[in-house]
């Protein structure tokens, strides 16, 4: 590969860096669901995880490599420290993928060398070169990241990059690990690399950055203008601390302003050809899926995928848009897959119509998943006359979410009102199949339900976030509840959708508790876990 690619490579790290944010922990099946959707979205590379980090991470990378890493699928990548054992684990997990990449890294800034690695520059240079060569002995596609590159002495950075390219790195990634740099500085770093690394034409320049100052996307766009051709980003911008550069913002900026960016990629200004491989109509759906499964809500004013991103409240704007959309809209909502809330199905719709519409919406469900979703659809259709595409999406996402099925909600009943003490009765089926009922009084109906559930499950936890959003307008809308709870230092999320928000609240809470419970089970010694099952 050369550095002269005339399109932008989208490297998605939602499942690796994105998953590093507190509470975004996904299980293997959820990671697979997201990876399949990322493939539909058209990302070029999926960083599926950090294979050495845990057996769960290893299995997730392996499963994604097996199922999504097909001939025409994306490159599947695993992160690995510049350590032999990490590289071996990555290579092993990636074996099933047709197109695989090892992404190895080591810090290069003086502050990291002195306080974290306690190594000299000469030592780090030697390790980087040796480990890239080691990764290269397993596969041809090898990426190297000098961590904290944006704060690394440029002369040392050039030296390291030259050495790793000579050792076989096909992509060199420049991370702004602490989200410190500004757009013009970041652009200058990329320009400096092109001018000072003699063999840079043998590698793609990639960028990776965090959003601590809200500059990650702007930094990347400046990097593109200066020669970067791979962007490492996440859906909804999730990730460590303030997150990573957001995929949807980068892709849409490159799409909407392609005439501005075309010349930087050596294209005629007026070229209409897309600058990335992304199918933009899959953006909204991917955003919702990632938000639902990670429990990381999207702020309403978030660019591109926020609930208000295409809403015009001011009278002057509404008047202009009605006369001509272009007065206040720079892109059409349909471009990101936001359809006009079409009414398509109702309670008399059969399984075939249901399956067909889901297919049109891009859902490929197994027979079991389809059956589960159809039962839910019928339940919802009984309560809500008209089922829109958005409702369908909420139903399907809810049914196919992969939270461990340990405790199950069998019954929720509340009594509340202006002169009543909110009281709830719940019945849960335990993992052992027993039905347990308990009741509690709370400050409100949801509080009462959660207290009753806690009496049954009996795992102390702190509720740190509770949010209800309606999927569509209207009194009979489906409500989506997302919650996050803390147990010791870990955060677990839960999500559920129902026309009854008290039921959705109970279900979301139990989904989060099931994740917590399953994590406690996996921490126990094998004999303790099996003793409990007996
Ligand atoms: O932020 C960072 O520097 C990283 C590297 C591992 C690429 O995530
Ligand atoms: Zn990062």
UniProtKB/TrEMBL annotation:
<dbReference type="InterPro" id="IPR050073">
    <property type="entry name" value="2-IPM_HCS-like"/>
</dbReference>
<comment type="function">
    <text>Catalyzes the condensation of the acetyl group of acetyl-CoA with 3-methyl-2-oxobutanoate (2-ketoisovalerate) to form 3-carboxy-3-hydroxy-4-methylpentanoate (2-isopropylmalate).</text>
</comment>
<dbReference type="InterPro" id="IPR000891">
    <property type="entry name" value="PYR_CT"/>
</dbReference>
<dbReference type="Pfam" id="PF22617">
    <property type="entry name" value="HCS_D2"/>
</dbReference>
<keyword id="KW-0028">Amino-acid biosynthesis</keyword>
<keyword id="KW-0479">Metal-binding</keyword>
<feature type="region of interest" description="Regulatory domain">
    <location>
        <begin position="408"/>
        <end position="534"/>
    </location>
</feature>
<dbReference type="Pfam" id="PF00682">
    <property type="entry name" value="HMGL-like"/>
</dbReference>
<keyword id="KW-0464">Manganese</keyword>
<comment type="pathway">
    <text>Amino-acid biosynthesis; L-leucine biosynthesis; L-leucine from 3-methyl-2-oxobutanoate: step 1/4.</text>
</comment>
<keyword id="KW-0100">Branched-chain amino acid biosynthesis</keyword>
<keyword id="KW-0963">Cytoplasm</keyword>
<comment type="similarity">
    <text>Belongs to the alpha-IPM synthase/homocitrate synthase family. LeuA type 1 subfamily.</text>
</comment>
<dbReference type="InterPro" id="IPR054691">
    <property type="entry name" value="LeuA/HCS_post-cat"/>
</dbReference>
<feature type="domain" description="Pyruvate carboxyltransferase">
    <location>
        <begin position="8"/>
        <end position="269"/>
    </location>
</feature>
<comment type="subunit">
    <text>Homodimer.</text>
</comment>
<dbReference type="InterPro" id="IPR013709">
    <property type="entry name" value="2-isopropylmalate_synth_dimer"/>
</dbReference>
<dbReference type="InterPro" id="IPR005671">
    <property type="entry name" value="LeuA_bact_synth"/>
</dbReference>
<feature type="binding site">
    <location>
        <position position="244"/>
    </location>
    <ligand>
        <name>Mn(2+)</name>
    </ligand>
</feature>
<dbReference type="InterPro" id="IPR036230">
    <property type="entry name" value="LeuA_allosteric_dom_sf"/>
</dbReference>
<feature type="binding site">
    <location>
        <position position="210"/>
    </location>
    <ligand>
        <name>Mn(2+)</name>
    </ligand>
</feature>
<feature type="binding site">
    <location>
        <position position="17"/>
    </location>
    <ligand>
        <name>Mn(2+)</name>
    </ligand>
</feature>
<dbReference type="InterPro" id="IPR013785">
    <property type="entry name" value="Aldolase_TIM"/>
</dbReference>
<keyword id="KW-0808">Transferase</keyword>
<dbReference type="GO" id="GO:0003852">
    <property type="term" value="F:2-isopropylmalate synthase activity"/>
</dbReference>
<keyword id="KW-0012">Acyltransferase</keyword>
<feature type="binding site">
    <location>
        <position position="208"/>
    </location>
    <ligand>
        <name>Mn(2+)</name>
    </ligand>
</feature>
<dbReference type="InterPro" id="IPR002034">
    <property type="entry name" value="AIPM/Hcit_synth_CS"/>
</dbReference>
<protein>
    <recommendedName>
        <fullName>2-isopropylmalate synthase</fullName>
        <ecNumber>2.3.3.13</ecNumber>
    </recommendedName>
</protein>
<dbReference type="Pfam" id="PF08502">
    <property type="entry name" value="LeuA_dimer"/>
</dbReference>
<keyword id="KW-0432">Leucine biosynthesis</keyword>
